Amino acid sequence: MKGSALTKVGRLADYFIGHPSELPRYLRFARAFPLQLGKPWISWPAIDFLAGHVRKNMDVFEYGSGGSTLFFAERAHSVRSVEHDANWYAFQQKGWNAPEARVILKAVEATSDDGTPVLDYVNAIDGDYDIILVDGLDDVTASSLRPLRLKCFEKARSHVRPGGIIVVDDAWRYDDIAFDVGEPRDVRRFQGPGPGRWGITRTDVYFY
Q1: Which of 62, 69, 202, 207 could form a disulfide with 186 if both were Cys (CB 3.0 to 4.6 A apart)?
Q2: What pLDDT does 149 receive?
Q3: What is the Rg, in whole angstroms, of the alpha carbon atoms belonging to the chain?
């Protein structure tokens, strides 16, 4: 989250004053690689929520693949992901053992002027899903295409099933997201530390 180093340290300290029981997990996994843990690279409070929410009859779609793909593959009926990074995709496949997961590689040229590769990435979602995770690529350099995750969120709204959820990582960047693209039934904000990071982040869940 935004702020000076001192602000970030203070934010982290304030969190653990209010949640002292979470400190051991934070210290244990702050240096961990989410893919090795089989955990999403989102806040721990959001991970805890999803661990209790996901059911074996649910279908999941992700913008961005990694530890979250393994997490959902263990718990849901199916998970499909779109991934823009060919090297990251190849790295994951070397140790992948999740037959329920299908990762679709979509090559995105971040500096594209016409936006076509970016739209291929956004439009990679097919069918309807119970859970849609908006993570992955967001650093598109063309100003007209930023932020990409908002475009993914807008697309996801037409593919989330009734009673489903859209999960947005690093949601502190998009505080007005619901007002930009329409109101969900409910929103829950999960702020806290997460695996593989030292600071505080926020993951929002939109209920439809």
Answers
A1: 207
A2: 86
A3: 17
SS (H, E, C) 119-179: HHHHCCCCCCEEEEEECCCCCCCCHHHCCHHHHHHHHHCCCEEEEEEEEECCHHHCCCHHH
Name residue 132's beta-bridge partners. Answer: 61, 166
pLDDT in tens, 128-155: 999 999 998 776 555 455 578 888 898 9
* Residue among 205, 189, 47 nearest 130 (CA): 205
The Cα diameter of the chain in Å comes to: 50
Q: Would you say 84 and 108 are in contact if contact means Cβ atoms under 8 Å apart? A: yes
Are 41 and 66 spatial neighbours (Cβ–Cβ below 8 Å)? yes
Q: Report the C-alpha gap between 166 and 131 in whole angstroms.
A: 6
pTM for this model (two decimals):
0.85
Going by the DSSP 8-state scheme, the letter that residue 195 receives in this structure is: T
Q: Is 110 exposed, middle or buried (0-12, 13-18, 19+ CB in 10 A)?
A: middle
**pLDDT range class, residue 104, cuts 50, 70, 90:** confident
